[in-house]
Amino acid sequence: MRCAGPVEPRRRERRGAGPARLPAALLILLLAARGAPALDDPALRARRTVLENGLTVLTLEDPTTPVVSFQLWVQVGSRDETRVTGLAHLFEHMMFKGSKRIGPEEHAQLVQARGGRLNAFTTQDFTVYFEDVPAEALPLVIDLEAERVANLDVSEATLASEREVVLEERRLRSEDRPAGRALEALFALAFQAHPYRWPVIGWRSDIESATVEACREFFRTYYAPNNIVISIAGDFEADLALDRVRRAFGGLPAAARIPRNPTREPEQRGERRARVEVPDLRGPILTMAWHAPASGHPDAEALDVASEILSGGRSSRLHRRLVYEEALALSAQGAYWELAATGLFYAFASVRPGVPVERVEELLLGEIARLREEPAAEREIEKAKRQLEVALVDGLETNHALAARIAQETALFGRVRPLSERLAAIQAVSAADVQRVAREYLADPNRSVVHVVESGSGSAP
Question: Which H helix or E strand runs over 440?
Fold first, then answer.
């Protein structure tokens, strides 16, 4: 039960009164008109409740869309793994394999039988489970989630079954995909000390050797109520939902201690390079990264604008130069990748067959140097800002997006950042800011470079 995102049910007549949510297209027009009235930000109406056992519950009533999104954000990801990698992702799978009162896959069957959609995903910082359901199914969802948190079946049989599923997923997504190999090598090269260096899915040897005892210890440690944020947004009654959450989750014991890896990544003091050889490769892959600040840093918006200038659509600098004008790459992109403890600014190019990867690297680094050395044109700055504004506004369109936003920001920052605050930060970015962050973070000694080439080729790393 993973990978594809949920699809909202068909619209029905709204229940109850409440401010109608403006369509994204109209909001974009308002953004275009400087001095327009402040936008309604429904996320700011979220109510935060902390149970006695430390469980944080966020409720946001919004009857404008006839669906409820229930999300359970466990504050554990691959960065919390110490002796065995891949455990956080392994539990994303095992949570669907049954508990004391619910059989394997029965959780999903019960939700889908009521017209709901569910899924899960794991990142470096979080493991997230969600259901998007009609309002009448919310009590069932609350009870189902509490049941598997309290009574998950962590047995030899379950572990053996899901281990094979994860190993196959790893083979398909990482080992047999040159792009997957490239990103694994890039993170392992860019991070020398921090646990962000290992893949979220884990290393094959760790997945193969993980024991039931290690899994049970991991689950007991991190799936505690004081390490979980529950977010509910949509067409429901908050007081009734809170009462149900208290009955279902309130008896779970809090963890006395939730350990966190204290390692900090040391400053990089010189370019790093790696070469990955792959048989029968269609075309080389170039990927590179520069260390950047963590999520929420004051430079985040300027880095976002820089990334949009470089790769925000077909008219962006990287696509226009590498794909359209020179026709040396099939695709070229870059982005500021925010993480809880730190971040990366990365670039990626899929090189055309027969084209030397060194030539593509030369051109890509030329565009990075131009961003450092020349102020971006005002039209580029404004276009980038508008693209970022549109992406933010899209987060208002569904209850699923609202539930994710309030949960993630509460977990990361302890508050939900107002949309107006974020839009103002984007609007404040100047060409000088973009040039400054490019000089500060996209410097040569801060760079890691990976070439993925065909086995036996003469390409130099």
Answer: helix 431-441
Let me know whether 243 and 292 are in one domain: no
Within-domain flag for 353: yes
Q: CA-CA distances (angstroms) from residue 458 to 275, 279, 453?
A: 11, 14, 9
* Dist. CA 453–CA 461, nearest whole Å: 9
Average pLDDT over residues 309-319: 94
Same domain (yes/no): 350, 225: no
pLDDT of residue 102: 95
Q: Which amino acid is at 280?
A: D
Q: Which distant-in-sequence residues (6+ apart) come within 8 Å of 163 by Cβ?
A: 90, 207, 208, 210
Give tens-digit pLDDT for 411-447: 999 999 999 999 999 999 999 999 999 999 999 999 9
CA distance 246 to 58: 13
Predicted model pTM:
0.90
DSSP characters for 98-143?
A: -BSSS-TTHHHHHHHHTT-EEEEEE-SS-EEEEEEE-GGGHHHHHH
Give the Cα separation of 461 and 222 in Å (integer): 40
As a whole number of angstroms, the distance between CA 94 and CA 70 comes to 19
Instruction: Give, to the nearest 10 degrees, the angle between helix 212-222 and helix 156-170.
Output: 90
Q: Which domain holds residue 182?
A: 42-249
**Phi, psi dihedrals of residue 346, rounded to the nearest 5°:** -120, 160
Reading phi first (left if > 0) and then psi (alpha if -120 to 50, else beta), residue 414 is in: left
Question: Residue 445, class by beta-carbon neighbours within 10 Å (0-12 exposed, 13-18 middle, 19+ buried)?
Answer: exposed
Residues 145 and 280 in one domain: no
CATH of the domain at 185: 3.30.830.10
Q: Tokens 């208002």 — which residue? A: 396
Do residues 357 and 286 touch, judged by C-beta distance below 8 A? Answer: yes
Give yes or no: residues 217 and 316 share one domain: no
Average pLDDT over residues 245-273: 96
Rounded mean pLDDT, 120-145: 97
